[in-house]
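Support request, please re-run this one:
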Amino acid sequence: MRTFVPKGGEIHREWFLIDASNVVLGRLSTTVARLLRGKHKPSFTPGLDVGDFVIVVNASRVRLTGNKWHDKRYYRHSGDPGHLKEQTAQELRDKTPERLVRYAVWGMLPKNRLGRQLFKKLKVYSGPEHPHQAQQPQQIKLEA
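Re-run finished. Output below.
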């Protein structure tokens, strides 16, 4: 039996819409990463981008369990000495809630060219509106 490897024209991409209202961040990001990689498809190939586009709306209403809103920290560094910035999850949600979801999904993707290519297919919005109505995305329900 020969291994099937899809060619560029054989890859069919779909658009999915996920509402993040009252969904735990980790459960949301595992589902999103799975859809981005294409692991839900029978034509999944680890080294190829066979995944779909994912739209996440209501990112500002995502949930964290326990005391993670105050205990979980996010760091960024400008590259200059002494410029390490630190934010709690609550501060990050209040300022840029889209970044909270993007960081969680990025942590579940491969750290190479393929991961960067997959990450470009993720669209995150803090509110319920998004500009991708023309793509007719399929709604995916996640349990709260």
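The first helix runs from residue 25 to 37. Strands lie at 15-19, 53-57, 73-77, 84-88, 122-124, 138-140.
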